[in-house]
Structures are given as structure tokens and as C-alpha cells.
Write a structure and sequence with these properties.
Length: 219
């Protein structure tokens, strides 16, 4: 991260590392926390709730980055500080209504389907402006920016082109009067390209924890 930031003429302190801990046991998260990591991201609600309970002695900042089903909004609203994967007004409305009053506003990023992949969640680039303005008006939420997972590629030019498109949407929304500050983009294989295109938060999992083994029925 530091090398990519220096190469881009950016300060590494301007980029946050989000450790994607889905599928890994709470002991692995505890080790990462002891090494200085405080932000962790989960994609499966039930698994995340078990870890949140097991690690409640640690002041971890919990981020939800997975697809959101309507029947899962309440535990997300009640237990996470950030959500990166909002792509529908209905989901944002439920998160807003279900956010406990004693908690600070839920920090939100809108997920953009930047590569137009049918297998991925996310709002289309053409619809992101309408969604952003609708979400920004909701109480108990704070719209922070955009998140994207471009189609995987080993070509750095292709990687940077996709991330540049996300940054352009981000800049457009700010020109429209929204005060956004977060570009959540870049993972283990492409975070250097994302940093060069303006990422403020990179989501790294396997490069920290190792390869994942998925179980059936994760929710």
C-alpha cells in the first residue's frame, strides 16, 4: 500500500486498510487486531454476528460488504458501523428505519456494478446519481461514497480503467453537491491499481489471512 501510494503521489495515511475476514475464525481476527488492524469486513450476517459476539472485548470497527437481503437489514443496522453494498433505495430505507437511536449514523457506500456483470450486485452507473441523492436524504445514515468490484483482470491498464470510471462517478456526485469522501475499491490482486486511481479504502482478505475455504449455506 505504501509503495502504491508513493507511486501515485499520495500519502499512505489517506488510505485505509479494510481486512476482509469473511470465512476466517475469530482467532485470526484477534491476531490481526493485535498486529494493529482495527477495521474488519464481513459478508455473511450470521457468521459476522458470531464473530462480533466473540470479539466484543475489542473496539473493532465492523464493515458489511456483502449483498443485502431485506430480511437481514435489522442485524446489519444494529451491529455494523459501515455498509459498503447498498444498491437499492428499499435497502437504504430499511437500514435507516432500523438503525438504533443510540448509535451514530450508519456510514454507507453505494455499490456500483461498474463492469455490468450479471453475477454481481450493484447499481448501474447510469442510475447511481438518482440512488445517491435519494439515500442522502434519509435519516440515521451518512452517505460516504462508492464501492465497486470490477471484473477481475491481470492487466493493470484494464484494472485502472475500471477504477477510473468509479472515480469519475464519485467526482460527478460531488459536483452535484454531495459531500462524499470514500472510494472503497481494490482487493488483494488489484489494490495497487485502485490506489493509483484514488481509492481511499482497500478491501484485502487473502493477502492478509490466506486462501479461503467456503462452507455450504453461508448467510
Amino acid at each position: 500500500m505504501a509503495a502504491a501510494a508513493v507511486s501515485a503521489g499520495r500519502a499512505v495515511n489517506d488510505i485505509s486498510l479494510l481486512a476482509v475476514s469473511k470465512t476466517f475464525p475469530d482467532g485470526a481476527l484477534r491476531c490481526a487486531y493485535q498486529a494493529g488492524q482495527i477495521r474488519f469486513a464481513e459478508s455473511y450476517v450470521q457468521e459476522a454476528l458470531e464473530k462480533i459476539s466473540a470479539l466484543q472485548d475489542l473496539p473493532i470497527e465492523w464493515h458489511f460488504i456483502g449483498p443485502i437481503q431485506s430480511n437481514k437489514t435489522r442485524p446489519i443496522a444494529e451491529n455494523f458501523a459501515w455498509v459498503h453494498s447498498v444498491d437499492r433505495v428499499k435497502i437504504a430505507e430499511r437500514l435507516s428505519a432500523q438503525r438504533p437511536a443510540h448509535l451514530s449514523p450508519l456510514q454507507l457506500c453505494l455499490q456500483v456494478n461498474i463492469s455490468d456483470e450479471s453475477s454481481k450486485s450493484g447499481v448501474s452507473p447510469d442510475e447511481v446519481s438518482d440512488l445517491a441523492h435519494a439515500v442522502a436524504r434519509l435519516p440515521n445514515l451518512q452517505l460516504r461514497g462508492l464501492m465497486a468490484i470490477p471484473a477481475p483482470s491481470e492487466d493493470v491498464t484494464v484494472q485502472r480503467t475500471a477504477f477510473a470510471r468509479v472515480r469519475e462517478l464519485f467526482d460527478q456526485l460531488n459536483r452535484q453537491g454531495l459531500q462524499l469522501d470514500t472510494l472503497s475499491m481494490g482487493m488483494s490482486h488489484d489494490f495497487a491499481a485502485a490506489i493509483k486511481e484514488g481509492a481511499t479504502m482497500v478491501r484485502v482478505g487473502s493477502a492478509i489471512f490466506g486462501n479461503r475455504i467456503y462452507s455450504e449455506g453461508m448467510v
